[in-house]
């Protein structure tokens, strides 16, 4: 059956309150490993784009997992730790600044999602996801059934969990990057184009973590 028709007779009752609706319906269709996939870091001028793929326990409490953008850093960290200990299967993937430059940010995001799905498949008891719920409009380039959901973090707890993992993982990476390149303030803005970050690029030129094809960086490649 075409994945897009799986919910054809149920869509009028789509999950405004039940954010495990899609997962539950897919499980009833026979999909045993339904994963949510999301990314963090499409907009920054520096650092990788990071994706996560999460399979939530079918019998667990899905209600704590909401869009990472609505949570404080402390709340995201706590939920990240909960996901790490409650039996969820988690895979993380990334695409580097050089890969982003080579294939563009959309394709790099999808590549990171593919890598996250593959990593998730290696988590015991093993087996790649057999269906993906993907945040956004674009499918991941893998031969697995998929459903894309615009604003998926608010519609699927699995996607919300993936958004939390991706965001926390990337924030930690950029905090580590701050130790290497403290002049840019990566620990404060995580590479996003804030006024302070743009000023730092203007004053110091780009570093190896900057995305050289992005406006706000490319103009300063020959700084100094």
UniProtKB/TrEMBL annotation:
- Sorted alphabetically, which CDD domains does this protein's record hold? RNase_HII_bacteria_HII_like
Q: A single GO CC term, please?
A: cytoplasm
Molecular function per GO: manganese ion binding; RNA binding; RNA-DNA hybrid ribonuclease activity
Extract the InterPro entries matched here: RNase_HII, RNase_HII/HIII, RNase_HII/HIII_dom, RNaseH-like_sf, RNaseH_sf
- Record-annotated residues binding a divalent metal cation? 38-39, 135
> Any binding details for the cofactor?
Manganese or magnesium. Binds 1 divalent metal ion per monomer in the absence of substrate. May bind a second metal ion after substrate binding.
Catalyses: Endonucleolytic cleavage to 5'-phosphomonoester
Stated name of the protein: Ribonuclease HII
Provide the species name.
Answer: Desulfobulbus propionicus (strain ATCC 33891 / DSM 2032 / VKM B-1956 / 1pr3)
Annotated gene: rnhB
């Amino acid at each position: 059956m075409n994945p897009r028709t799986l919910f054809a007779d149920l869509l009028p009752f789509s999950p405004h309150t039940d954010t495990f609706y899609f997962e539950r319906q897919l499980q009833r269709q026979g999909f045993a490993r339904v994963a949510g996939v999301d990314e963090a870091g499409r907009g920054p001028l520096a650092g990788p784009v990071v994706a996560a793929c999460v399979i939530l326990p079918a019998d667990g409490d899905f209600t704590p997992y909401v869009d990472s953008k609505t949570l404080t850093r402390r709340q995201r960290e706590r939920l990240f730790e909960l996901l790490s200990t409650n039996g969820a299967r988690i895979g993380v993937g990334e695409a580097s600044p050089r890969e982003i430059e080579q294939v563009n940010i959309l394709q790099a995001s999808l590549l990171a999602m593919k890598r996250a799905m593959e990593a998730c498949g290696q988590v015991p008891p093993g087996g790649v996801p057999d269906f993906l719920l993907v945040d956004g409009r674009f499918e991941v380039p893998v031969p697995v059934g998929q459903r894309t959901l615009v604003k998926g973090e608010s519609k699927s707890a699995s996607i919300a969990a993936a958004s939390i993992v991706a965001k926390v993982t990337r924030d930690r990476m950029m905090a580590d990057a701050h130790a290497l390149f403290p002049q840019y303030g990566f620990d404060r803005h995580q590479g996003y184009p804030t006024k302070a970050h743009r000023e730092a690029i203007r004053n110091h030129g780009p570093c190896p973590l900057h995305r050289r094809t992005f406006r706000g960086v490319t103009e300063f490649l020959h700084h100094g």
